[in-house]
Write a structure and sequence with these properties.
- There is one protein chain.
- The protein is an alpha+beta fold and about 425 residues long.
- The protein folds into three domains: about 15-175, no CATH class; about 190-285, Orthogonal Bundle (Helix Hairpins), CATH 1.10.287.70; about 300-415, Sandwich (Jelly Rolls), CATH 2.60.120.
- Helix content is about 60%, strand content about 10%.
- Helix 8 packs across helix 11 (about 250-295).
Length: about 425
C-alpha cells in the first residue's frame, strides 16, 4: 500500500486572527472546515497552549496572593513581593484584555468578504461591545481594576481588594469541565428551576407549620417565621447544624417530614444533572465525530444522511503510544479514521521516509474493498484516538450509499497509483 502525503502550504492569518486564536484556541471563521482547523492547530496550537498555561498560572497566582496576603512576607522574607506579583499580574491581564478587545471582531464567522469599510467598522464595534458586556468580559475588567486598587490602596482589607477572586471564573476558558457544567445547567434550567421552586415552597410551608407548633414551647428559638425559615433551610438541605431543634411531638414529626422531603427534593436536581452530563457528553461526541467525518476530503461530496449514518456506526478506540492497530497479513475487520494523534504505516521494504498518517486521515480501506489480508502493519506513534467502522457496517453502508463506496474505491486507487 503506497501512500504519498503532500504537505499543504501554511495558512496565512492576520495578526488579529493570530491573537484571537492564541487567546481562544479557536477561530470561528475556519472552524467549520475541519482540514483548515487542523492546519491552524498545527501552526498555532503550541502558541495557544503556551498562552493558556501562562494565563492559568496567573489566575491561580492571583488567588493565592489575595488569600495569603501578608503571609507572603513570612514565607519568603521579601516585604514587597506581594506588590511585585500584583504588578506582574496586572500587566498580564491588561495585555490579555486589550488583546481580546482588539481581536474581538474576529469572532464574527458570517462576515461577508466583500464588506465595505463602513460595514466592517460597524461589525468591529458590535463584536467588541459584545465582548465588553459579556460575563467574562466584565470579569476581565473587574479583575484588572481590583488588582490596580490592590496596588494603590492603603487599606488591604477593603472589599474592592477581594474582587480579584472573581477571576477564578476565567478558568472556564481553559478547563472544559467548567464549560460543560454551564452548558448542562443552561440546557436543564427549566427543570432545575421547577425543582428548586418546589423545594423553596416546601421550606416555607414546613417552616411556617413548625413555627406555629413550636412558638409557645420555644419562644426564644422560634421568635418569628424568618427564624423558622433558617431551621427549614438547614433541615431540608440535610445540613443539620442543631442550633434550632423542635421539642414538641408535632414539631419533631414535621422535622422528620422535612428531612425526608429534603432528601427527595435534592435527589431530583442530582439526577437531572447526572443525566444532563451524560447526554451533553454524548452529544459533543456525536458532533465531534460528525465534524471529523464531514470535513474529510474523502467525504466532501456525500450528502448529510450518509454522513449521519456513518457517524452513528462509529466506535471510538483509544490507544497508547507504540500500539499495533493491526499487523500485516491479518484479516480486515474495520476501516479507521484518526480522530486525534498519529500512526505510522509500516511497509516492507521500508520507504526512504516513514509514512505517517495524522488527525483526519483514513486507513485500512484496501483490505475491506478487495477482501484480502492486510498488506502493511499500522502502529501508533503517539497516544491516538481512532474511530472504527466495522466491516459489516461498512458493507451495509456501502450498499445503502453508492457514493460512499465509490469514494472509498477512489482513495484506494489513488494510493495504489
Amino acid at each position: 500500500m503506497n501512500i504519498s502525503i503532500s504537505q499543504p502550504p501554511p495558512i496565512r492569518l492576520t495578526p488579529r486572527q493570530i491573537t484571537y486564536y492564541a487567546l481562544n484556541n479557536t477561530l470561528p471563521a475556519y472552524d467549520s472546515n475541519y482540514s483548515f482547523a487542523v492546519r491552524i492547530a498545527n501552526q498555532y496550537g503550541k502558541l495557544s497552549k503556551l498562552i493558556a498555561r501562562i494565563l492559568t498560572v496567573a489566575i491561580l497566582s492571583m488567588a493565592i496572593v489575595r488569600i495569603l496576603e501578608s503571609q507572603l512576607w513570612e514565607l519568603t522574607g521579601i516585604p514587597s513581593l506581594e506588590k511585585i506579583l500584583l504588578i506582574i499580574l496586572l500587566s498580564i491581564f491588561t495585555i490579555e484584555y486589550l488583546g481580546r478587545l482588539w481581536s474581538a471582531p474576529e469572532s464574527c464567522s458570517d462576515l461577508a468578504e466583500e464588506s465595505d469599510d463602513v460595514r466592517e467598522h460597524e461589525t468591529d464595534h458590535h463584536y467588541r461591545f459584545h465582548y465588553v458586556i459579556s460575563l467574562l468580559g466584565i470579569i476581565d475588567l473587574l479583575v484588572i481594576l481590583s488588582i490596580l486598587y490592590n496596588i494603590t490602596s492603603v487599606d488591604p482589607n477593603s472589599w474592592p481588594n477581594y474582587v480579584v477572586v472573581l477571576g477564578l471564573f476565567k478558568l472556564s476558558r481553559y478547563i472544559p469541565g467548567i464549560e460543560i457544567v454551564g452548558a448542562v445547567v443552561k440546557k436543564e434550567r427549566q427543570i432545575l428551576t421547577a425543582s428548586l421552586l418546589c423545594l423553596g415552597l416546601l421550606v416555607v410551608i414546613l417552616s411556617t407549620a413548625l413555627y406555629l407548633a413550636e412558638r409557645n414551647a420555644q419562644p426564644e428559638a422560634f421568635k418569628n417565621i424568618p427564624t423558622a425559615l433558617w431551621w427549614g433551610i438547614v433541615t431540608m438541605t440535610t445540613t443539620g447544624y442543631g442550633d434550632i431543634i423542635p421539642v414538641t411531638s408535632i414539631g419533631r414529626i414535621l422535622g422528620g417530614v422535612a428531612m425526608l422531603g429534603g432528601i427527595a427534593m435534592l435527589a431530583i436536581p442530582a439526577g437531572i444533572l447526572a443525566s444532563g452530563f451524560a447526554e451533553e457528553l454524548r452529544y459533543r461526541e456525536q458532533i465531534y465525530n460528525w465534524e471529523i467525518i464531514s470535513n474529510l476530503e474523502l467525504f466532501h461530496d456525500l450528502d448529510s444522511s450518509c454522513i449521519a449514518d456513518i457517524t452513528r456506526h462509529l466506535r471510538s478506540i483509544v490507544l497508547p503510544k507504540n500500539t499495533i492497530v493491526f499487523k500485516k497479513n491479518s484479516s480486515p475487520n474495520a476501516i479507521y479514521f484518526i480522530a486525534d494523534g498519529a500512526v505510522e504505516v509500516q511497509i516492507y521494504p521500508r520507504p526512504p521516509s516513514p509514512i505517517i498518517l495524522r488527525k483526519g486521515d483514513v486507513f485500512g480501506e484496501a483490505g475491506l474493498l478487495e477482501n484480502r489480508k492486510r498488506n502493511a502493519s499500522v502502529k501508533t506513534i503517539s497516544a491516538t484516538r481512532l474511530m472504527a467502522l466495522d466491516i459489516h457496517d461498512f458493507h451495509r453502508l456501502a450498499n445503502d450509499h453508492a457514493s460512499l463506496k465509490s469514494k472509498i474505491e477512489s482513495i484506494n486507487l489513488s494510493r495504489k497509483t
